[in-house]
Specification:
alpha/beta, Aspartate Aminotransferase, domain 1, Aspartate Aminotransferase, domain 2, 2 domains, binds pyridoxal-5'-phosphate
């Protein structure tokens, strides 16, 4: 991958600082920044009016949501729900969908997920919904399909699970999980926040019923998106004003509307993926967008695997270190979000000693509190997490290792 080209696209990367807390938030593309200011300068009006600028603004946002739907490989733009954060979108979904559930209905959550895909479902207990927990195998640090099968039954309404854990970095086999869930007559709601910055999201291929992620972790602004299958969204109760009908998908789930300039700016991300493709491959006329995207993310995945292998090879050699996740770099099994603990040092002690070197890494539970509890890592103050993305370099990873060498 042409790393110089990639880094040039991110104005913040010109600074003398190494960003390795990308699972917390990635740096923003110049193309995104340009579109935010362009929209505000030229089209900052209320939508839906008959005057020229309002009509143009409406067309621009319609275009942006149609491109987002293409990015996700959704069937139609109405399947794209925009919101300020994944946390809010999942809360909206739980409030809306549960209006049609009754006492004794069941939901399954995991103990590896970020709370964004746990609390909205847990809170339904107050309504008499039973919430079951699909627990991580503490030995393999994986969610086992057999354990899920034991929890599913004919009262299960929905299974909430993440595509990748923001602590373990492990990729869950969503397609297989969706098959099990659908066989049981339930729906699957996927948190793709820790996955989407690294791999292509294809909601059709996954057969996900609902799928969310946050743009600020995929090189864009503080905004999020939730995909929902059209017929399912149509059935949901509206959370908008009484005069916004049930058929008004997705507006009924976007009370107060979405942020226009930020939504428009996501076009910059899609264009960036296209540019990576054009830069590295010989564009063929008959190659469709999905094929191009697959190639782009293939490049990203192999670059990330290389970065992860450098760090993991080093960490795996240190007897005091335990990787919290899969200890191999294999791009098909994990993303380069790498967490570990040290037997003699607390996680905050390690991070504090890195802070002075102009490198951003982080310690804690990362709101995956139930996972940190399940693994008894609270007394370590959680894990040390180094979260890499494709704009990180081998040199940066080696610099971090040289600093680690002075600590343990
Ligand atoms: C896996 C995962 N899910 C959900 C969230 C919440 O996303 P948002 O900040 O958009 O609510 C995060 C944020 O860190 C996350 O890492």
């Amino acid at each position: 991958m042409d790393i110089e080209f990639v880094r040039e696209q991110f104005p913040a990367l010109k600074r003398d600082f190494i960003f390795m807390d990308n699972a917390g938030g990635s740096q923003v593309l110049g193309k995104v920044i340009e579109r935010i200011s362009g929209y505000l300068v030229h089209h900052n009006v209320q939508l839906g009016a008959s005057y020229k600028v309002s009509v143009e603004a409406g067309e621009k946002l319609k275009y942006a949501t149609s491109k987002i739907s293409q990015l996700l490989n959704a069937s139609r733009p109405e399947e794209v729900v925009i919101g300020s954060s994944t946390t809010l979108l999942l809360r909206i979904l739980s409030l809306s969908i549960s209006k049609q559930w009754t006492k004794g209905d069941e939901v399954i959550v995991t103990d590896t997920d970020h709370e964004a895909n746990v609390s909205p479902w847990m809170d339904l207990k107050k309504k008499g919904i039973e919430v079951k927990v699909w627990k991580v195998n503490p030995e393999t640090l994986e969610l086992e399909l057999d354990d899920l099968r034991k929890l599913l039954n004919n009262r299960t309404k929905l299974v909430a699970v993440s595509h990748a854990s923001n602590v373990l970095g492990t990729i869950n086999p969503i397609k297989k999980i969706a098959e099990e869930v659908h066989n049981a007559g339930a729906l699957i709601c996927v948190d793709g926040v820790a996955y989407a910055p690294h791999r292509k999201v294809d909601v059709k291929e996954l057969d996900a019923d609902f799928y969310t992620f946050s743009w600020y972790k995929t090189y864009g602004p503080h905004l999020a998106v939730m995909y929902g299958k059209y017929d399912l969204l149509l059935k949901l109760d509206s959370l908008n004003h009484y005069f916004i009908g049930k058929e008004e998908v997705p507006y009924k789930l976007q009370p107060g509307n979405f942020n226009f300039e930020l939504t428009y700016s996501t076009l910059g991300i899609i264009e960036y993926y296209n540019e990576i493709y054009r830069r590295h491959f010989n564009p063929k006329k008959d190659e469709d967008f999905q094929t191009r995207l697959t190639k782009t993310f293939g490049l990203i995945a192999s670059h990330e695997e290389k970065l992860a292998s450098i760090l993991l090879d080093y960490l795996n050699e240190i007897p005091e270190i335990r990787i919290i996740g899969i200890p191999e770099a294999a791009a098909g099994r994990r993303v380069p979000t790498i967490s570990f603990v040290h037997s003699n040092l607390k996680s905050d002690e390690i991070v504090e000693r890195v802070d002075g070197h102009r490198i951003g890494i982080r310690f804690g539970d990362f709101y995956a509190k139930k996972l940190i509890q399940a693994l008894n890592l609270e007394e370590k103050n959680g894990v040390v997490r180094v979260s890499l993305v494709h704009y990180n370099t081998q040199k940066e990873v080696r610099k971090l290792i040289s600093i680690f060498k002075g600590i343990f």
